Amino acid sequence: MTFLYHILKPGNNVLVVSKPHLICIKAICDYFKEYKDKILFRFTIGSADSTVLKFWEPNAPDFEERLESLKYAFNAGYQTSVSCEPMLDDKIDQVIEKVLPYVTETIWIGKPNKLNERLSMNGFKNDVATMDCAHRLMKLFSDEYVLDLCERYWDNQKIRWKDSIKKVIERNQGGIGYADR
């Protein structure tokens, strides 16, 4: 809180990116009311399924707590955004539907990046079950799935595409118009 105060006091804007714990978001929102125009919250929510979140992000908050944190910040008058990068299952529509009413800025959508490499680096290289799950997760995000997702949300001005999605679009559509967001 002290560090954040010293950044905000001179007039800087701050992007707070978090897998939010409600108690922390309440504390930030309540303490920094006078700086709310300088703070944008971006909450990472890669699935609406808490079981999926618990598997890929152990010790992080479940979906309900992340959604409550988003609602709290939104209702307190802060700028809000969501990052669905990485998407952790192929039901990202559920996340978008539930968070959209509480997002003032953007919802970023992206595939997992270098998942196998990250898991290997974090000691899961020989964990066959986890590496199998990673392989299945990556197979979910076929070009067909990504293009269908883009088609469904192309007209939604709050949706933004991360590079992993833009690459699929460019590879399949020549990037005409799609890669601009």
In short:
This protein is α/β, with parallel strands linked by helices and 181 residues long. It has helices at residues 2-8, 22-31, 50-56, 63-75, 92-99, 115-124, 128-140, 143-153, 163-173; strands at 14-18, 39-44, 79-84, 107-109, 159-161. It contains 9 helices and 5 strands, in the order αβαβααβαβαααβα.
Written overview of the protein:
The chain is an alpha/beta fold and 181 residues long. Helix content is 50%, strand content 13%. It has one domain (2-164): pyruvate-formate lyase- activating enzyme (Alpha-Beta Horseshoe), CATH 3.80.30. The protein has helices at 2-8, 22-31, 50-56, 63-75, 92-99, 115-124, 128-140, 143-153, 163-173; strands at residues 14-18, 39-44, 79-84, 107-109, 159-161. A 5-stranded parallel β-sheet has the order 1-2-3-4-5. Helix 6 packs antiparallel against helix 7 (128-140). The radius of gyration is 17 Å and the shape is globular.
